[in-house]
Records
---
Amino acid sequence: MKIAGRDAGKQCVVVEILDNSYVTIDGSTRRRKCNIKHLEPMDKVLDIKSGASHADIVKQFDKLGLTLKEKKSKKAAPRPRKQRKVKVKAPVEKKEEKKEAKKAEKEPEKKKKAGEEKDGKKEEVKKEEKKPEPPKPARPIPPKPESTKLEKK
């Protein structure tokens, strides 16, 4: 019987001796490597071969009248995959209609900007030309020191 860990209190049998302090166990517990200090001997003995399969151990437990709780493994559910976003293409007719509507809106605005009328006279709109500023140096350049040579006498 296992007395420590997650499988504590469950019946098991030593399947194989690994070294002086570790053995492989199986039974109501998971089949795994276990420290001998975590096991408590029982008064019942099973006749099995070294490295016996889980099916052989279940048969031996049934012969002695001991019941094993069988673990029913679940099937792994398919992991939901991230789906790529698909760009929806608008019908061609709608695009053309939008372009025409935008052009129609822009044309009257251009006429107003090109020359505005006041008192029956057209005033010309002057565009201010911006002069590009010279690029600034990344860091200020220190002035060069004058020569500090000592004159010989």
---
Amino acid sequence: MQPIRTQQNPSGTRLLEPPQRSERLRFEVWEDIKVFTDLKNDWACLCKELSDNITVFSSHAWYESWWEYYGKGEKIYIFTMWVDNKLVGIAPLMWKKLTIHGMPCKTIGFIQNNQSLHNEFRVMTL
């Protein structure tokens, strides 16, 4: 990404000039657990760039361990946001079957159970 430039106008005040956008933004949704494993390095890079706001509960290792022990019978959905080939956002979710007031429901929600209620979407500021 290019930095924001400033220029001085005749009155002496500075005007912000937005960076030129050459990046291509794309969103993807993954339903394959193999892709989850393949995202490990990109996920680590994203967490490193967001290090001031990251906890262990945002890491690939946390979700990988959770899925291994609690994800049996569930379906994973990983929403990713990319600028060119750089991962800039991730939302790990899962398909759940619930019963609400006696009615069976299917939902997409955070990867969690009563043992782990730590969930966040990780997105870089563009």
